[in-house]
Amino acid sequence: MNMDRESLEMLEASLRKTMLSASGPELDAALTELGWAEMLSDAPDLAIPLVFRLLGETGSHASVLVDVVLHATGNTIGDTVELPIPYTGNGWVVWDRISAVSAEPTMGGLPLRREDDGYPIRVTEARRAVSWWLIGSARAMLALARQHALDRVQFGKPIASFQAVRHRLAETLVAIEGAEATLTLPSADNPDLLALLAKAAAGRAALTAAKNCQQVLGGIGFTEEHELHRHVKRALVLDGLLGSSRELTKKAGAGLRARGSAPRLAQL
């Protein structure tokens, strides 16, 4: 699938509009209509970053993560198989594609339910997909905090002019850009390691965004009337999927110690 810049921008605008108006089964159906299966099959390097980043930015959800795992293992995209997904703390969750109703209030509004056990799945592509989702969520939180900082006036001037606020926003942006840079590295030589590091970096960026943006927003950031709380809850759950940032960082360090050297991941 070859697309010029104008076509890609039109596709992104169409996807964003769809995700702002639909979520869950409705969004699954809309993405099917837009040719999600064909995009994932023909151009995964374009489809996955675009669709998952927009899921994060819009706060919507769809069962496309299951499709990524199915496609990576040579199965049919759109299959309703119940696929156990690793979750933080050596746990497992299943994405309910049928009812698409959140089984637990702690799952950030996602239709996930905890399972006692599971079986190994291919996680490289799934980790990259969730990483883009986390980056989208982090960017959504940063946009909310930035706008609040511009609008909120204290001592006769916007709080965006205060150094402490600027530092929190800048720290968040640096974390997001660093995680995205990790995702855009060529992964031909070490795809599994790069996906692991990208997921760890994206999870850390989203958690940094949640902490800093909630501080910038102040009291309103802790209320359910403001939409920040939905992104914070979603980021906490997404960080736990396929290994949390803390777990993956430890795993990467243990692997490098056992190897005795660090592979070159980028040409500087």
Keywords, please?
mainly alpha, three-stranded antiparallel sheet, 10 helices, 268 residues
Could you describe the 3D structure shown?
The chain is mainly alpha-helical and 268 residues long. The chain has a domain of 137 residues: Butyryl-CoA Dehydrogenase, subunit A, domain 3, CATH 1.20.140.10. 60% of the residues lie in helices and 6% in strands. It is built from ten helices and five strands; from the N terminus they run αααααβββαββαααα. A three-stranded antiparallel β-sheet has the order 1-2-3, with no helix packed on it. Strands 4-5 form a two-stranded antiparallel sheet. Helix 4 packs parallel to helix 6 and helix 6 runs antiparallel to helix 7. It starts with a helix and ends in a 9-residue tail after the last helix. 40% of the residues are buried.
Query: What's the number of extended β-strand segments?
Result: 5
Helix percent reads 55-70%
How many helical elements? Answer: 10
Main β-sheet, in a few words? 3 strands, antiparallel
> What would the principal axes of the Cα set say about the shape?
globular
Q: What is the helix/strand order?
A: HHHHHEEEHEEHHHH
CATH architecture of one domain: Up-down Bundle
Would you tell me which CATH topology of one domain applies? Butyryl-CoA Dehydrogenase, subunit A, domain 3
Low-confidence stretches: none
How are the strands ordered across the major sheet?
1-2-3
Helix-strand makeup class: mainly alpha
What Rg is obtained from the alpha carbons, in whole angstroms? 19 Å
Give the strand content.
Answer: 5-15%
Report mean pLDDT, rounded to a whole number. Answer: 92
Q: How far apart lie the N and C ends?
A: 30 Å
CATH class of one domain: Mainly Alpha
Fourth CATH level, the homologous superfamily of one domain? Butyryl-CoA Dehydrogenase, subunit A, domain 3
InterPro entries: Acyl-CoA_dehydrogenase (IPR050741), AcylCo_DH-like_C (IPR036250), AcylCo_DH/oxidase_C (IPR009075)
Organism: Mycolicibacterium frederiksbergense
Pfam family, one: Acyl-CoA_dh_1
Keywords: FAD, Flavoprotein, Oxidoreductase
